[in-house]
């Protein structure tokens, strides 16, 4: 019985990813050792088995946010170790170089995990520093605002006092002027009586 074959576009529609993403996943899988069936022109032909691995890649990418190359390596390794689910690989016999690369790859995972934890810790510390700095800035701004308000109130009081002082001075000046005018009027009245004017 002939197995069903799918195009890149079919896979994109079935799995729910973009066509370029199908190509990206396929390249990552091939790089990890997975082999796709190819037609006479060299184009990939996908099967039901391939759909399953694409769905797993999409799920892991969404859930973990890991790089596609890392996910592809994990899936190929996982299926390679699963005897009940054999995977099509280029070579079952690993060369010493491939074994060394796998060991480096596993040690890299540990190193990356440690770096990730260190980065998380550093981010938390930076977050605390930013919070402390924001608190300091807020306190300084509040203090500055209070001082500005006090200065404005003091200036308003000085202005009010100056206006009141000016008004009192004008009132006194007017009173003095009125008194002087009264005196002149009284003097004129006396002189007017004498001289008849």
Helical run tally: 5
Structural class: mainly alpha
How many β strands by DSSP? 2
Low-confidence stretches: 85-94
Radius of gyration: 46 Å
Report how far the terminal alpha carbons are from each other.
146 Å
H/E element string? HHEEHHH
What value does the average pLDDT take?
A: 81
Q: Beta-strand level of the residues, as a percent range?
A: under 5%
Q: Please give the largest β-sheet.
A: 2 strands, antiparallel
From the structure above, extract its key features:
197 residues; 2 strands; mainly alpha; 2% strand; two-stranded antiparallel ribbon
Structure report:
With 197 residues, the chain is mainly alpha-helical. It has 5 helices and 2 strands, in the order ααββααα. The protein has helices spanning 8-15, 19-32, 48-64, 68-81, 96-195; strands at residues 37-38, 44-45. A two-stranded antiparallel sheet has the order 1-2. A hairpin with a 5-residue loop joins β1 and β2. It starts with 7 loop residues before the first helix and ends with a helix.
Quick recap of the structure?
By secondary structure, the protein is an all-alpha fold.
Task: Break the fold down into its secondary structure elements and pairings.
Blueprint: H1 8-15, H2 19-32, E1 37-38, E2 44-45, H3 48-64, H4 68-81, H5 96-195
Antiparallel strand pairs: 1-2
Helix pairs in contact: 1-2, 2-4, 3-4
């Amino acid at each position: 019985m002939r197995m069903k074959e799918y195009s890149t576009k079919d896979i994109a529609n079935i799995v729910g990813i973009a066509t370029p993403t199908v190509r990206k996943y396929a390249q990552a899988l091939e790089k990890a050792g997975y082999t796709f069936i190819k037609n006479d022109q060299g184009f990939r032909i996908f099967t039901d088995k391939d759909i399953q691995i694409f769905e797993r890649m999409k799920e892991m990418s969404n859930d973990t946010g890991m790089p596609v190359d890392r996910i592809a390596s994990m899936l190929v390794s996982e299926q390679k170790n699963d005897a009940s689910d054999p995977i099509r690989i280029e070579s079952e016999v690993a060369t010493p170089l491939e074994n060394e690369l796998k060991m480096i790859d596993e040690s890299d995972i540990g190193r990356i995990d440690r770096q990730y934890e260190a980065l998380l810790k550093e981010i938390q510390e930076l977050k605390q520093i930013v919070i402390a700095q924001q608190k300091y800035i807020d306190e300084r701004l509040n203090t500055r605002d209070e001082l500005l308000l006090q200065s404005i109130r003091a200036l308003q009081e000085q202005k009010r006092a100056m206006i009141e002082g000016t008004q009192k001075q004008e009132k006194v000046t007017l009173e003095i002027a009125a008194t002087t005018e009264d005196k002149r009027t009284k003097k004129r009245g006396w002189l007017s009586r004498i001289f008849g004017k």
